[in-house]
Amino acid sequence: MPYVNIKVTNEGVTKEQKQALVAGATELLSRVLGKNPATTIVVIDEVETDNWGIAGELVTERRLRGA
Amino acid sequence: MPYVNIKVTNEGVTKEQKQALVAGATELLSRVLGKNPATTIVVIDEVETDNWGIAGELVTERRLRGA
Amino acid sequence: MPYVNIKVTNEGVTKEQKQALVAGATELLSRVLGKNPATTIVVIDEVETDNWGIAGELVTERRLRGA
Amino acid sequence: MPYVNIKVTNEGVTKEQKQALVAGATELLSRVLGKNPATTIVVIDEVETDNWGIAGELVTERRLRGA
Amino acid sequence: MPYVNIKVTNEGVTKEQKQALVAGATELLSRVLGKNPATTIVVIDEVETDNWGIAGELVTERRLRGA
Amino acid sequence: MPYVNIKVTNEGVTKEQKQALVAGATELLSRVLGKNPATTIVVIDEVETDNWGIAGELVTERRLRGA
Fold it and tell me: How far apart are CA B39 and CA F54, in angstroms?
């Protein structure tokens, strides 16, 4: 029954990586808290780099600088 | 003033269905808690089936199996 | 499998009202989109009036004015 | 370390406006609470007008009426 | 820079379990996507069983039935 | 109509600081995007330091080390 939300920048996450995130988060909740995997939900949000800011600037700008 | 967020998989929700979700959620908050419909906000997130996991796997895979 | 989050101010919502919100939101998703009630999750957040702002001021202040 | 999420309707927000939102929110947390800008995250969600409801109707409908 | 939110019912999660969830989610993002652990944020929400609904009823009721 | 959510650790935020956050975020949306302050909602979440992780550890532990 847990709900996990993972937000990352939209920079080429593959379907295989999404599968690994879902499997890993579900296993984590099962192992640490004994939660039932059958009802564990994981939602992945891929956020455009223009829409994610850190340190007061857009990730897009940081990427242009190589950060 | 309530805020309602509805997350569903992105599998062909029509504009009419969205309108029904907004009207229904707003009516629910008004009826149960007496909240003012004029300031009730409803946001619908349509999540790709590749980005939604349940039971440790992607919804995309479940749909391929007919689940 | 839908996930619904309802945020309201913490002003005496009873357990019966919470039950009505959960039942109503689950029914709404089933009726409008045909979603399976068995895996529909509803989470209710009760937010302190000091932590909810609208129109640039805290709800606490609005309540003191009778708004 | 704060996390700020800004949800607005998807109606032509420019990159410069997104930069201003990120810079402004980061400055706000630093000025009011002394939070370190280097680890302040801001995520902007642009929500389609078909997916945002207020007062029981979709924003799309309100825009058609000029509201 | 990823942001992970884990929502579980408030049923006695210990500080050691919270530490394990934070460490596990951070490791997951690093291993699968190469994300920098130093800026990965994990927020755990413990939701009262009166405020969490599944299958149209409150978790509190399900627990009373032994579910 | 924008919705802003601010998450910070629960470390003594005063009511005056909450008021400043609400006023500041509302002004920011009005100034940058021309949004109507009357319908701008701001919700502040104060998260326990045991429930906030960064760099793979709980904020509680970091505070004990003086970080």
Answer: 36
Q: What is the dihedral of CA A16, A35, E5, F43, to 10 degrees?
A: 140
Does the interface predicted TM-score (ipTM) exceed 0.95?
yes
CATH T-level fold of A3-64: Macrophage Migration Inhibitory Factor (3.30.429)
The token pair that represents C67 in the structure block:
């708004």
pTM score, whole prediction: 0.97
SS3 E3: strand
Active site residues of E: 2
Question: Residue E9: which of E50, E41, E43, E38 has the closest Cα?
Answer: E50
CB pairs under 8 A between B and C: 67
The answer to whether F31 touches C62, Cβ cutoff 8 Å, is no
In chain F, what are the domain boundaries?
A: 3-64
Chain F partners (3+ C-beta pairs within 8 A): B, C, D, E
pLDDT tens digits for C23-66?
999 999 999 999 999 999 999 999 999 999 999 999 999 999 98
